[in-house]
From TrEMBL:
Residue ranges crossing the lipid bilayer per the database entry: 248-267
SUPFAM superfamilies (alphabetical): Cytochrome c
Name assigned to this protein: Cytochrome bc1 complex cytochrome c subunit
Signal sequence range: 1-39
Keywords from the UniProt entry: Cell membrane, Electron transport, Heme, Iron, Membrane, Metal-binding, Repeat, Respiratory chain, Signal, Translocase, Transmembrane, Transmembrane helix, Transport
Catalytic activity: a quinol + 2 Fe(III)-[cytochrome c](out) = a quinone + 2 Fe(II)-[cytochrome c](out) + 2 H(+)(out)
UniProt EC number: 7.1.1.8
Organism of this sequence: Leifsonia kafniensis
Cytochrome c domain: residues covered: 56-135, 150-228
Length: 270
């Protein structure tokens, strides 16, 4: 009798036998499924942890606010007779005002003056997070808008058009009315300059993205940092206060030197 043999495939493998790559495919599918599940679980855990951390920061900020700010701004931050409402001012306003020491104010006056900062960076972040949680508002800037690598020419033009009438063309500051003043912009961090533009502290107008784009703000910051890091090409800048200080210098020292020289020559000739 002829020997019974199982039929084979064209490749010579016995019929019904699993393809050698099937195990590899099953393992790959299992790894993909396990990896996807782990990634989803990790992302969910990270999000939950971030939310918990954010909520904890907000709670810490709320306590700091109640102890240090509520007297003027109200327990609900909706303002009192001594301080404006902070609802909608955003984290950027808090970071600027508290981060430069302007708040809390020592005494009431025409405007809050810069002084030593009274809170740590963590406390300022907590206060900012709490105020930001009350209503949408400008956020604390980050990224390339602060890198100082913008267009200096465009930044100088934008600054002269929008800012120089108060802050001086060299950013040296200037006097305003009723005891108010525009502060000098030297030594001010890029973050605080940007925050001032988007929040309009004190007597400064708000420059939102419709007035000056984020790229334009970056250019202005770059221009100011260039002025700060490069000496005056004309020599002694006399405080960069403009023609008044320069004219006064000439009258006092230049004309004074001419008069003194004339007197000396006259005395020698006698």
């Amino acid at each position: 009798m002829p020997e019974n043999r199982k039929p084979t495939t064209r490749q010579g493998r016995k019929a019904g036998r699993r393809h050698p790559m099937a195990s590899v495919a099953l393992i790959a599918i299992g790894l993909l499924f396990t990896g996807g599940a782990y990634a989803a679980f990790s992302a969910s855990s990270a999000t939950a942890q971030a939310d918990a951390t954010s909520q904890q920061t907000i709670e810490e900020g709320k306590k700091l606010f109640a102890a240090n700010c509520a007297t003027c701004h109200g327990l609900a931050a909706d303002g009192t007779g001594d301080g404006p409402s902070l609802i909608g001012v955003g984290a950027a306003a808090v970071d600027f005002q508290v981060g430069t020491g302007r708040m809390p104010m020592a005494v009431n006056g025409p405007q809050a003056e810069q002084k030593p900062v009274q809170f740590t960076d963590e406390q300022i972040s907590a206060l900012a997070a709490y105020v930001a949680s009350l209503a949408p508002g400008p956020a604390i800037p980050e990224g390339e808008v602060l890198d100082g690598n913008g267009d200096l020419s465009n930044g100088g033009e934008l600054f002269r058009i929008n800012c120089a009438m108060c802050h001086n063309v060299a950013g040296a500051g200037g006097a305003l009315t009723e005891g108010k003043f525009a502060p000098p912009l030297t030594g001010v961090s890029a973050t605080h300059i940007y925050e001032a533009m988007v929040t309009g502290p004190q007597n400064m107008p708000v420059f939102n993205d419709m007035n000056i784009t984020p790229e334009g703000k970056r250019d202005i910051i770059s221009y100011l940092k260039y002025l700060e890091n490069n000496p005056s090409p004309g020599g002694f800048a006399l405080g960069s206060l403009g023609p008044v200080s320069e004219g006064l210098f000439l009258w006092i020292f230049g004309l004074g030197a001419v008069v003194a020289l004339t007197v000396w020559i006259t005395a020698k000739s006698n």
